[in-house]
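#data-curation
PF: Archiving a pair of folding outputs for the training set. Convention for this channel: one message per protein, sequence first, structure tokens after, nothing in between. First:
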Amino acid sequence: MIVAGWPDDDTLVEAESRVQAKFRELQVRAWQLDDDLSFAVFPGLRTCLAFDPEDIRREFEAIQITARRLGDSEEAELLFSRIENNTLDGWNGEAAIAFLDRVTAIHRAASVQREHILAALASRAAVYQIAVDARRNHLELARATVSAIDIALGEMSERAAKGAVSVLADLGKDLANLDPTKLLGSGISMLISVTKGTVDMLIGGSEYEQIVDTFVIESRKLADGLSSDLLAVRQKMQDDHYNLSTEVAESVLQQPLPAAADVDSPDFSYSAFWHDGREPVQFEDKVAAEQAEMKAEESTIHRRLKGAL
């Protein structure tokens, strides 16, 4: 059965069985009964069956929803922009600078997370395209092969059976140039603008051996092309993951805050985080007193938690 424009598993399996039955019929006519039918298989069929376009579509839509949500928080974007564009807005000191660096890093980390998800979205889009084309191509291979055998058996008047298969001209380049944000508002059937083309597939000949040889060549081309396209997607995913993960690993978020920014540290003071409207000379002692009181209260709480009080 053709589902949403692509053949389902049963259709592909039946197509392969039909090809094998036709080859057996041709063997009887050519007195080649000693030959087994191990060649009469689609080497890429198992891979086709492993990639169900419907499953990929569901994954795509789930990732799409997540990606949209991550990019929909205008309030968060405005808050980040306000902090970053206004710089420190009158605040000064080592801890103030560390605070701004940390907020900027948090903003970038959120963007990197979204880029991770968009990269995953693009990969699902590409795999869907590959899966659909592979299924269609294998069905076309079966059709052309059956026609070629019918010709050889005299059941058709043509001397060769032709077919056309879809190919992705340069999937790696297309993925590199793809803007994943364009996938946020599209359905899976309009997911990726790849450079596609068609290649003629010729199966046939006047002799049994010629038909077998051309079938084996064409079926191997399909299998190799499918593997090559999937490897291209895998490599792109690995490159994206490495680049984004490296950025996260090198982020200031992975570094501890300076001691001057830690209210529990003896290095903390108002002079490390002070405002233009309140000079350190006026508020340094007040902040130090509040810090000492806070530590005393925390100490009491800790003692109670330990059962000392």
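PF: Second:
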Amino acid sequence: MGKSLVCAAGLPEGWKGAFSEAPESTSACPVESEAPASSEGEVRPLRLWELEVYLKCPVVGLCLTKQEQHQLLKRFGVQTKRMSPFDVHEVFVACGENENRLSLRVQGFLERKYARRCRELSGMDEPSLLREWGRDFAAGRMGESFWPLVTHPALSDAGRRKVFGDVHMAMHDSLEDRGLRLREIQELREAREGLSAKLRDSETACRRLEADMRALEKESAALLRRVEEAEGARAALGRDRPAREVERMARPEEERQRLLARAEVAEERLAAREGQMEVLKARVEELEREREQKDLFIRETHCILEGMKGQGGCDPNCPAYDLCSKRVLIVGGIARMETLYRRLVEENGGVFEYHDGKVRGGSRQLEERLKRADMVLCPVTCNSHAACLLVKNLGKKYNKPVRMLENHSVSSLARAMGS
């Protein structure tokens, strides 16, 4: 199995020294030398090649960083630039099938890296080891204890399977949660693209209206010039002209009235166009604000997703350490962000409560929720003055901590809970 895995990685010929054969060895990954013998009656920790097959993959993935893997291979003259992370992973899993130059080097590296933790766990029995693992797993410190535990001589096969099962299922949960976050980001991107398309259409309509307005202005100016010309022709006619001249004077008047009527129609059309222009400008501004809001959602969701990598529980260094099991009431904010508010609170160990901040129908529902809350967050930008004042008064009445936030963003809520 070792040779097939390594060959699949596509390594150059020079790497094979890491698996140099020892005399009289016939295994798939030959050994270079005998393992150091333990003294009579002494129980020593298991070596990498002595572990069960199912444990070697998480040992490589949890206990060796990618940088450490590349450095170990480079010491054997292996060029890793063209190797994928999975290829490198396969090499280390394959080398752990028996004792060889690379597995001995990895064994020594892991012993030095986890020497302090191994000393802390030495002398413990299996129940004590599993209790230590439970605390480390809940606090997200799986990588610090995995190697010392699975190689500990006091841990049974059932105990090792328990430790492996916890890690295996945590990987599934992490992938599922990451997939959910990525789908949410994709939906936000699609919504932003839709808003951008609407914005482009509105800008095109605005440009079309501006062109129509310029044409109407030219037409109106031309009509006004013709009216002025008619007025001038009329003024040039004397009052004591013959009847024929009087009749000829009436014709410019009729033309003037007709031109004035057309000018009025043109002015009305121009006013209507200006009204449409104002409506479209307001719509463009609204779409710009919505697009900026969507961009803000995407950036904050990215930050939360990056911040969730590697989380497995709370410890005293965690910003949400004091949030565990507390009920957090959020009053107001953006209604469509309620899902993000809920995830932020619940994934940090809290119990989520929400009220939209509308108190026109009475404050009884808000008061009931505030009474059972442990913490109240109220963004002032999304609530009326009456709602903010009501929240402050209810907080004093029931002795509840109330934080008034400057804005409704997810990062503001996260900072308020962290403080």
